[in-house]
Amino acid sequence: MLDATKIVPEELVPIRPVGRMVLNRNPDNFFAETEQVAFCTAHVVPGIDFSNDPLLAGRIHSYVDTQISRLGGPNFHEIPINAPVAQVHNNQRDGLHRQTINRGRVSYEPNSLAGGCPFQAGASAGFVSFPEPMAQDAHKVRGKPEKFADHYTQARLFFHSQSPVEQQHIVNAFRFELSRVQVPAIRERMVAGLRHVDNALALAVAAGLGMKALPAPLPKVLEKDPTPEVTQSKALSLLARPGDGSVRARRVALLVADGADGASLMAVARELLAQGAVPRWVGSRLGTVETTTGTLEVDVTMEAMPSVLFDAVVVPDGEAAVAALAEDGRALEFVKDQYRHCKPLLVFGAGSNLLTKAGIPTTLSDGAADTGLLMAGAGEADAASTAFLAALAAHRHFARETDPPRV
To answer: Does 373 or 403 have the greater pLDDT score?
Structure first.
């Protein structure tokens, strides 16, 4: 499997877990660690050799070349985030930003002045190429198999493996990107290529670009279409693995303003914390707000932490608080974005006025109930919290989406 644009479906080769990687901390300094880290495909441990992957062959050279220019010279491996734990013994010397101070008179081998050290590790610990056997009449050439030119089979597999919601997202993405292409002939050529993937996909994209008729399919390199072993792969859909039903680490915005009903907000916040979620008090400004049950400290403003960074939102009860939020365009956009992105909304009492001001419908386009939009009255905080947690565990409520969008 030497074509980096292809995958082997899990139906043919099932996933076999071989370990678990745990991310146990964030970087202490983003520049010193994240920005200066140097991934290098040429660095391999003993027992590993390089395949004939043409993309890998290019990266073995280009990654080193890139690090030399990106990180200021050939000694990028001595930057702390890239430095090995064990001391390196080789004959590399000098160059820009050299950190090691080498002692001695020699930088070559074999030598007699340093007792022959350092010397190559040899086959037991150093790099050794794998002696790949070849058939008696085989010929090794620089070239690519014919299937490298098969540009559509896997694209078709991917598209047909998506749920209807995901397929519509792909259509929307093509419409958005191609609408930015200013030359009509190029837009037509892209749609012509999509006809080899799925004609319905091409039709939907063309409709969004204002094309009156579909262009003829692009000429293909391969004369005969390969016969795929798998035409649909469930694992390629993001919705195929909905998770374990937990809300751990989900971030929830609780909108606050002076006059908000503190009892219902605190009840929801306690339940979210108990389930491992991360509630944040979000307001129009920092400082404190006076609720019906006391003072709350605002964690973050709607400008500093916009809606896209939250998994759900809670709109408070309280006429004065809702009136203040309804006059703030940022609050209106905040709840609009939550709705557009199909995220759960829990709305208490007078908070429904904020939805009305934002133009957010309380039912789906067919009149059915929106399971991700929960309305609760006074004294219903406990029951509402339970329903809200279930909606949050479902993550996105795509039944809300329409083409074109209602909000």
So the answer is: 373
SS3 state at 208: helix
Q: How far apart are CA 231 and CA 9, in angstroms?
A: 10
In this structure, are residues 337 and 398 in contact, taking their beta carbons and an 8 Å threshold?
no
Above 80 in pLDDT, residue 340? yes
Rounded Cα–Cα distance for residues 32 and 150 (Å): 42
What is the residue-averaged pLDDT of the chain? 93
Helix (H) or strand (E) holding 279: strand 278-283
Rounded Cα distance between 304 and 271, Å, is: 25
pLDDT band at 104 (very low <50, low <70, confident <90, very high): confident
8 A C-beta contact, residue 175 and residue 208: yes
Distance, CA of 190 to CA of 84 (rounded, Å):
47
**Distance in angstroms (rounded) separating the CA atoms of residues 338 and 355:** 11
Amino acid at 186: I
The predicted model scores a pTM of 0.84
294 bridge partner residues:
291
What is the b/e burial string over 162-197, where b = at least 16 CB atoms within 10 angstroms of the residue's CB? beeebbbebbbebbeebeeeeeeeebbebbbbbbbb
Buried b or exposed e, range 244-256, using 16+ CB within 10 angstroms: eeebeebebbbbb
Burial class of residue 221 (count of CB atoms within 10 Å of its CB; 0-12, 13-18, 19+)? exposed
354-356-358-359 Cα dihedral, nearest 10 degrees: 160
